[in-house]
Amino acid sequence: MIPFKEALDIVLGAASLPDAEPCSLISSQGRVLAQDIRSDIDMPPFNKSAVDGFACRMADLAVGTGHTIRPGHAPALRVMETIPAGKVPSHPIGPGQCARIMTGAMVPEGADAVIMVEDTTELPDGTIRFDKEKSAANICYQGEDIRKRDLVLTKGLLISPPEIAVLASVGAVSPMVYNQPKVAVISTGDELVDPGEIPGPARIRNSNSSQLIGQIEQIHLKAMDMGISGDIEEALYQKINEGLGSSNVVIVSGGISMGDYDYVPAVMQKSGVEILFKTIAIQPGRPTVFGRKGDKFVFGLPGNPVSSFVLFELLVKPFLFKLMGHDYHAPETPLPMGETYIRKKSTRRSILPVAIRENHVYPLDYHGSAHIHSYINADGMVAIEVGATKLNKGETVDVRWV
What is the pLDDT of residue 132? Predict the structure, then answer.
């Protein structure tokens, strides 16, 4: 039995950087950048108005000249044109002049301020007058956000909607992204029936496959459901080999403990898979197996649904991201315990489902590794390390969000 940290290091150390391919912008969410992205233009690409108002010269407002205009006493400004967004101004702004301008429109030459329309009065002759004592510039200056050739996104970044917006803004419509691994899911056990069936005596529905496929698809990968294998060594051997032939990663749930019908480790070896570990000092999830066959990998996860859920989140998910070219770090937040938690044994790292109430952490009612309902109301998970038997009220713990 090895510590969890050692198991995670073995898993991540086995992953290698995948090949890359171009991807359309619209299909890039959930992919990982295989190149640095630099801007092909300044952003903003021109001086643009930050408000609806009038582009003018600050000097005509007497702002910054050492004296203050009394509201209603500023000189009238003649409106030269109206500039909507997307139009190039026709007239430079000279003394006593302004241009009506919309948010996002190009500021005309000669103007160094945009006064907000609500800070002005339109006079009967069509001129406008500034009614405040002072004004901000209200201009977004060319290149103030990004300069041409600036690095905007880095290789290894997971693409989400904000990254898609940045890619679009710099014209990167076919970014290079890393290839995604193919994942096969197998559930084992003579007691299992498909979710759509009514279980007979001594039978249960197969929930693990659906749960694991959901977790896989949550990170924008596609999973191949290979169904249920009974507790027959030859049948499991055929399933695992089929999975190795059609995918990069095979996830098997159940059949990895010490029972008479727990064949997964032996079948993995029979299939040519080198087992790198098969027990971890973690609760739930101690009987977890990991092995490789060349550039193919097999995870054997416990059959209890909480164990398979937790070990996927802690071990399999970081590995799949690594195979996608991304270093995944689950979001964690330090928060105080709202009550004391005590456990009897401390020989393994224990993972607890928790709820967050008023920024405090409360362990949920948890009956063991078959009690997947405990995670329905869970906001996150908290780890109790080996050797620790208590989390005291008020003690700060790291909450890993789920």
Answer: 86
How many whole angstroms separate alpha carbon 89 and alpha carbon 270?
75
* Gap between the Cα atoms of 218 and 30, Å rounded: 9
Q: Which sign does the torsion angle of CA 190, 191, 195, 197 carry?
A: positive
Domain boundaries, position 155 = 20-43+144-178
| CA nearest neighbour of 23 among 172, 166, 183, 149 | 172
Q: What tokens appear for 78 in the block?
A: 């003649």
Question: Does 24 share its domain with 173?
Answer: yes
Residues comprising the chain, all counted: 402
218: left (phi over 0), alpha (psi -120 to 50) or beta: alpha
Q: Are residues 72 and 32 in the same domain?
A: no
Whether 114 and 218 share a structural domain? no
For 232-275, give the DSSP string: -HHHHHHHHHHHHHH-SEEEEES--SSSTT--HHHHHHHTTPEE
Is the per-residue pLDDT at 398 higher than 50? Answer: yes
| Interval 16-32 mean pLDDT | 96
Q: Which residues of 131-146 are buried (b: 16+ CB within 10 A; e: fewer)?
A: ebeebebbbbebbeeb
283-334 pLDDT per residue, tens? 999 999 999 999 999 999 998 999 999 999 999 999 999 999 999 999 999 9
Q: How confident is the model at residue 365 (pLDDT cuts 50, 70, 90)?
A: confident
Q: Are residues 154 and 257 in the same domain?
A: no
Give the three-state DSSP class for 199: coil
Report residue 303 as tokens.
């059959």
CATH number of the domain encompassing residue 163: 3.90.105.10
Q: Residue 368 has what DSSP assignment?
A: -
- How many independent structural domains does the chain possess? 4
Beta strands in 103-216 (DSSP E): 113-116, 120-122, 128-130, 139-140, 151-153, 176-178, 183-188, 192-193, 204-205
The reply to whether 133 and 65 lie within a common domain is: yes
Question: Domain ends where: 323, 344, 363?
Answer: 323
Number of C-beta neighbours around residue 68 at 10 A:
11
Closest residue by Cα to residue 182 from 229, 252, 271, 243:
243
Strands 97-101 and 53-56: antiparallel
> Which residue did the predictor score with more confidence, 371 or 332?
332
Q: Nearest-CA neighbor of 167 among 183, 198, 187, 146?
A: 146
